[in-house]
Amino acid sequence: MKNHAIYLLATLAAICSVVTTVQAQSPRTRTDPDSFVARDLTKELRNKMTGDYTLALAGDVLMQEPMGKRISPELKSVLRNADTTIGNAEVFIVDRRFWAGPNGYGNNWAPKELAADWADLGFDLMGAGEAAGGEAGMISTLKIMEEAGIKVGGYGPNLTVARQPVFQELEQGRVAMVYALPVGPVASSSETARDKKGNEGAEQWGLNTLKLTQSMTVTAEQLAQLKAIRDTVVARRMEPDVTRPIDIPKDKPNSVELQGKTFVLGDKPGNYLYAMDPKDEQAQVLAVRGAKEYADFAIFSMHMHENRYAFQAYSQDHYPTDYAVRLAHELIDNGLDVFHGQGNHTMQGIEIYKGRPIFYNLGNLSVHRFGADGTPDGGDGKTYIEDGEVGEQWLQQDINLMAYLAEVDYEEGRLTQIRIHPTDLGLGRERPWSRMNIPMKPSPENAERILRLVQEYSKPFGTEMIINGGVGYIDVPDTATVSVGANIRAGFEK
């Protein structure tokens, strides 16, 4: 008994000794912010890929069936031989045998076999399109594409996940891609993913979106007329039968709000101007900068349908909007290496900004929108394709049936050359329906035609492209690449 008591006392003493030792440990030293030397962001935000690196870019990939076996070998070679190949998955991918639900079928659903076909073509990272299949379509697409080895960026079960980049690990370094969809004037903000904040609602599947507001220019005379019309309406707010009058509008200088639309003073009527939501804009900037700090190479992909003019047919513009140019420059100033634009269903130009390429729109690698066969409404005896022939004509014009692939070369983190490969989806509509929208190498005449247009659309940005042998060449000197990020820390809040 005595020995047992001695043992217990010895054990207790040992425990106390350990506790005392732990408590006696020095506290973690605090970093002195005044003497701390922060990292040089110009080094963190440069292109850190080593050796030779090649990126291939395609625009909208709106395919409803696997067609890799029928694409021209020259185009397949561009996609397959790159270290990284990207495009926008303008479809949702499902097992068609079991697909049913509120989002139906339409012209953006595609079979699960398409993912393997894309992987065989060389695609590594793809944008999320417009999430046309709803939550079920997003879940199905992510699962099937992951099984095929392709990562899809831009949507997820909440905004945090949707805004996260997707990554590719290579010997030369880590590649990151952030994807976003502008909403407001064209796409609906209901497609935005949502985080749960306290007791406010619930998480929601959706996209990483960038909210836009749109205004239209009018002349000084027209602005005065609109203001007069608006003021006569507002003047009735105090009539006896008005239970709750509206607030008196507070116009910004040279601007009038009328029936939910904003009109601003301009030289000519009908120009669209766009403003990005400041919080959404900053979120994209931080997503890209954070991606670049974590990775060696950063891509930003955005699906844009907005036009510059009110008198321009929907999604058929050959030049970028004002906000697209501003955002591309801002992102490059925060470490972006490549801006990948798509969505407008037409080709747009190429800009080299601080030695980083901006592809405002590469056109459609495919725009296979014939949909599933069915019985159209009306019982007029037409097939689904026959019934949609007139309605789909806006996507079957020559401007929609030409595109380009971009092949971008880097050496030790510096852009050296861009090669532009023209693509023919059925120019002149000379192909039968069964062969329309399959990417093919154009005839020499059409290749020259397409490349001349890319030259024209790139002129406003000072980009020079040489055409040789049916391919466009943009050579970029070492001096074009300048460092970014030197002034970022000065803008941090203390």
Mean pLDDT, to the nearest integer, reads 91
For the CA atoms, what is the radius of gyration? 28 Å
**What's the helical proportion of residues?**
25-40%
Shape: globular
Question: How would you describe this protein?
Answer:
By secondary structure, the protein is of the alpha/beta class. Helix 4 packs across helix 5 (134-148). It has a domain at 213-265. The strands form 4 sheets. Strands 8, 9, 11, 12, 13, 14, 15, 16, 17 and 18 form a 10-stranded mixed sheet that branches. Strands 1, 2, 5, 6, 19, 20, 21, 22 and 23 form a 9-stranded mixed sheet that branches. A two-stranded parallel sheet has the order 3-4. The longest helix is centred in the N-terminal third of the chain and has 22 residues, at 2-23. The mean pLDDT is 91. It has helices at residues 2-23, 41-44, 73-81, 113-121, 134-148, 159-162, 220-234, 278-294, 322-332, 384-387, 444-458, and strands at 52-62, 84-89, 92-94, 109-111, 125-127, 151-153, 155-156, 166-170, 173-183, 206-207, 209-218, 255-258, 261-265, 272-276, 297-303, 338-342, 350-353, 356-359, 364-367, 402-411, 414-424, 466-468, 471-475.
What is shown here, in short?
This protein has a domain at 213-265. It contains eleven helices and 23 strands. The protein has helices at residues 2-23, 41-44, 73-81, 113-121, 134-148, 159-162, 220-234, 278-294, 322-332, 384-387, 444-458, and strands at residues 52-62, 84-89, 92-94, 109-111, 125-127, 151-153, 155-156, 166-170, 173-183, 206-207, 209-218, 255-258, 261-265, 272-276, 297-303, 338-342, 350-353, 356-359, 364-367, 402-411, 414-424, 466-468, 471-475.
